[in-house]
UniProtKB/TrEMBL annotation:
PANTHER family: UPF0045 PROTEIN ECM15. This is MTH1187 family thiamine-binding protein. Residues 3-95 form the Thiamine-binding protein domain. InterPro entries: MTH1187/YkoF-like, Thiamine_BP, UPF0045_domain. Belongs to the UPF0045 family. Transmembrane segments: none annotated. Pfam families: Thiamine_BP. It comes from Nocardioides pocheonensis. One of its GO terms (cellular component) is cytosol.
Length: 101
């Protein structure tokens, strides 16, 4: 499965930024060893249900250590027969279609 998550603390720094808290969450995800990628809006994580959800929980609770309230947006893609290697493969399939016109 692949999940796309966005974790946001209730508070921000003096500029309205939340990058410190987001970095804490991304650090947890990267240290998990699961395939992942971060973009401007979400972090994608790939793995089995239980291991992915455990990492999501740990990342949320890490942000909660410095914020009294935490928001989580989670979108999941579960496709039988396509359990691994899909972070890159999904993008490659779209890029192939774009090249083919």
């Amino acid at each position: 499965m692949i999940v796309a998550i966005s974790i946001s603390p209730s508070g921000a720094d003096e500029t309205g930024g939340v990058s410190d808290a987001v970095a804490d969450a991304v650090r947890v995800i990267r240290e998990s060893g699961l395939p992942n990628e971060t973009n401007a809006m979400f972090t994608n994580i790939e793995g089995e249900w239980d291991e992915v959800m455990a990492v999501v929980k740990e990342a949320v609770f890490r942000v909660a250590e410095t914020s009294p309230r935490v928001g989580l947006v989670l979108k999941a893609d579960l496709r039988r027969g396509f359990e691994t290697g899909q972070l890159a493969a999904k993008v490659e399939r779209v890029e192939e279609r774009l090249r083919d016109g």
